Amino acid sequence: MPVNVNDVIHLLCRISEERKMKAAVRHSGRGALVAGATAFVGGLMGGPPGIAVGGAVGGLFGAWMTAGQFKPIPQIILELPPAEQQKLYDDAFAIIRNLDWADAAQLTALVMGNAALQQKLAAVLINYLSHELRAEIRVFHTEVHVLKDVMADQSCKLG
Hints:
The chain has helices at residues 5-18, 28-65, 73-78, 82-96, 104-112, 115-132, 144-158; strands at residues 21-25, 71-72, 135-139. By secondary structure, it is mostly helical. Strands 2-1-3 form a 3-stranded antiparallel beta sheet. It is elongated, with a radius of gyration of 23 Å. The N and C termini lie far apart (52 Å).
């Protein structure tokens, strides 16, 4: 069944929320602009040595200014322009197109109940964000059931 772009975008948001995924999108253009501007001003004020000092100071300031602040991925996805959301939809739809669902709620339930599908869709998100937006991704998700299994194994060995 065809599903609209917003439904898939919200599904991807849900997956990234569950996994506590965050990304830092760097704005290297702004940093380069600051570094170039300070090198120019340094050159006007101090000649060739001023260019070097201005470029170094501007480069450090630009790097500090553009250091990525991690934002939740759902926020980043929802702020994407429609054309970018369509690209993300196309990539995700390639994974879910063979599923049989009646509506967006059923699709979400199918995907959230299947760890392999969640993993594939999370990989789509990571690939898209890191390649298209040049974002640095952090996943803060911990598998509670894995921890419980490890603790159960330890208690069996102790007992």
